[in-house]
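The protein record quoted for completeness.
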Amino acid sequence: MKYFSTKTYGHNIGLSCAFRQPKAESHCKYIHGYSLSFKFIFTCKDLDENNWVVDFGSLKPLKIWLEQNFDHKLLIDKNDPMSQQFELLEHSGLCQLVLMDGVGCEAFAKHAYNFANNYIKQLTDGRCWVYSCEVSEHGANSAIIKEE
């Protein structure tokens, strides 16, 4: 038997970022942005001494990480052929640049999942882990990564 709990950082908290898909044939090749939403599902086999999967009060470092990486940031793939131009924008004070190994909903879900899973496992001495992470651009588009 497994227990599950969820934590959502919704569109309303303002994780507004811009990014682009340089290899896209569509309009996604242009800089565009969303106020992203992140939903984490945590799981464990045994509850803690409070009968919780995870203490929601202990998730402040996760929210801080999300803000540092997605709040009013320009997210660019580290292999973007125009990355030097984006670095010039940052050096000019025109943006807060975050270079990532992959951008887009699926990549953002993977980055957030990896950070959260490492954090939760360390926090709970391995008792709890992240089952899945869903990232939504808006009500119609989202991507999910989950444990196998």
User: Anything to note?
Assistant: The helical segments are 60-70, 83-91, 105-123.
